[in-house]
Amino acid sequence: MFTRLVTKSLRVRRERLLISIIAVMLGAAMVTSLMTISLDIREQMGKELRSYGANLVVLPGEGEYINQFNATHNSIIGSVSFLYFKAGVNAKKIDFAGADLEAARKMNPWWHIEGALPGQQELLPGINAAKKPWA
Q1: C-alpha to C-alpha distance for 37 and 43, rounded to whole angstroms
Q2: pLDDT by residue (tens digit) across 41-78?
Q3: Which residues contact 96 (CB under 8 A, 6 or more apart)?
Q4: How far does Cα 120 stand from its chain's mean position?
């Protein structure tokens, strides 16, 4: 009896059945997409913020340099120390930055370096500095 009532109701009201099936499918799709977004948002935001570069720059107050600090807070993903200075090249003052390039590459995966990383007494010029005739 019950099955006969259900089948007759489904045959008579096909439009309502179709609308209810579409509504359930839309609801399931919305729940799935919102769950995907909410579970992945922290990782995506971290990647986007890291692509902008340094979020915090620490400079010395009185002295000439800052001792290496340890990134112990769990919100800090990593740190790279840079040493900025000016040097003379052919009677011109040029800005230089020294860094641990292995750590800097891990923090900045978008860097494109052709060839091998420089050694202790070598330097890595940026694309604009490499194009200038220094000799």
Answers
A1: 10
A2: 877 877 777 677 666 666 666 666 555 555 556 666 67
A3: 84, 85, 86, 87, 123
A4: 29
